[in-house]
């Protein structure tokens, strides 16, 4: 049929996403993106627009795939915020251990290049980090700690997640990553226990 795309857009987007994930925005040239997707420049532009628009679409796809898994894990343990955080990190460790996925994290990789990104792309990356923080914060909402403490813990959990991405990209072994997660979950549990109203009440 005349004018019909002769390639699967979703597959091409997944392939482009892997390039940005592995190389970062700066080193993901149009030639490399074209080689990975099997598309010429004209087809890339026709399907996705310019490199910046393609990058944003890849961020959206990454967030849709992995964000849904994070959200499901965080929501699976209502009333038990510590277990929710543990489940969140279980999903992250599973992604890192998956041999079919690049090392690190596309959002973490992109965040390190924020100063060089187009303003709209930088805002997109920050927005995805904020979304992750909000999801964690919602999972902590059932705890009886001060809201400010819960805000700080949500930021802390996201910071640990980004650290895991950097460590895995640097070749840290699974045992080391799991040690970081154990300490992070213990910190969340200890902070919630210490700041609960019944713990803070004078005796």
UniProtKB/TrEMBL annotation:
<keyword id="KW-0238">DNA-binding</keyword>
<keyword id="KW-0805">Transcription regulation</keyword>
<dbReference type="InterPro" id="IPR036271">
    <property type="entry name" value="Tet_transcr_reg_TetR-rel_C_sf"/>
</dbReference>
<dbReference type="InterPro" id="IPR009057">
    <property type="entry name" value="Homeodomain-like_sf"/>
</dbReference>
<feature type="DNA-binding region" description="H-T-H motif">
    <location>
        <begin position="29"/>
        <end position="48"/>
    </location>
</feature>
<feature type="domain" description="HTH tetR-type">
    <location>
        <begin position="6"/>
        <end position="66"/>
    </location>
</feature>
<dbReference type="GO" id="GO:0003677">
    <property type="term" value="F:DNA binding"/>
</dbReference>
<keyword id="KW-0804">Transcription</keyword>
<dbReference type="Pfam" id="PF00440">
    <property type="entry name" value="TetR_N"/>
</dbReference>
<dbReference type="InterPro" id="IPR023772">
    <property type="entry name" value="DNA-bd_HTH_TetR-type_CS"/>
</dbReference>
<protein>
    <submittedName>
        <fullName>TetR family transcriptional regulator</fullName>
    </submittedName>
</protein>
<dbReference type="InterPro" id="IPR001647">
    <property type="entry name" value="HTH_TetR"/>
</dbReference>
